Amino acid sequence: MIEVNRKGEVWVFAEQEDESLNDVSLELVGRARQLADRLGVKVGAVLAGWNVRELSYRLIAHGVDHVYHVHDTRLEHYRTLPYARVMCQLIEKYKPQIVMYGATPIGRDLAPRIASELKAGLTADCTDLEIGDYTDPKSKQVHKDLLMQIRPAFGGNIIATIINYDRWPQMATVREGVMRMREGDPKRTGKIIEETIEFNDFDLAVKLIERHREARKVNLKAARIIVAGGGGVGSKENFQLIHDLAGALGGAVGASRAAVDGGFISKDHQVGQTGTTVRPALYVACGISGAVQHRAGMEESAKIIAINWDKDAPIFGVAHYGIVGDLNKVIPMMIKAIKERG
Predict the structure, then answer these.
(1) For burial by CB atoms within 10 Å, which of 40, 75, 85, 137 has the most?
(2) pLDDT digits (tens, 9 = 90+) for 193-204
(3) How many domains, in total, are found in the chain?
């Protein structure tokens, strides 16, 4: 366990693969900057790998003050134990008060290992992070400026706020897309600190023999237009209407959790707290009631059109334009109008 260091920095694990930063790392840097400014401390990022030093300048441009760079051929590809050794040694050396990771396959693998080694707390899959105070209801002791780690719980039915006042660093994994990426400032300056890590035989026990990567089939985060279907679509066969409208608009296909749970479409297409957070120019919600879990993943879209037979559906509360009607009739009419104008 690392001692509580209220002057410690706010850190981000700068996840990179094939010499390219994961977007979630830059999203986290933006929030780290806000948290650090609130606490009056610096922002740090740990960048480990082989031939990735140039990525430091992008991290600095987005708000990092200190980049802790570890250059080692054994870190060229991600392996749990060497990367955990890097993070643990640097955390023990510099004692940051907050460490954030993306809730990616790598982040979800790495963060628990570090938490276990350091006997620190970890909150997984956060959707927001804030700084606030906590009063112990028994002792009445006030703990100032803690990290409020906010995440859905009980299948997304409630929002929980989790704090860690005594076992630092305060650590969290954060879902991709929930933090808005700030604009980078290429004129911004920061410091690159070169670090060397000593590995032991156990750290290097796992050898990478062969590597295969499957390209992501769905990239909802990058889509400018998304047509999403919900449980109200009714069936997997009827979901073809959603594909047809998305095709007419040149957009991507999304879905609510109800549609995914109903087997209408794969989870890759899910939008919401337990899916992908999106901010397209246009979001068309078809047969989606608009539960808070879904709205949290799409309500920042520039324009939202909702189609639902229920005029009291919550989705109309965030929609810019609403159509009350049967989607089986409305969508074919929309497709026809789009094609006639095209």
Answers:
(1) 85
(2) 999 999 988 888
(3) 2
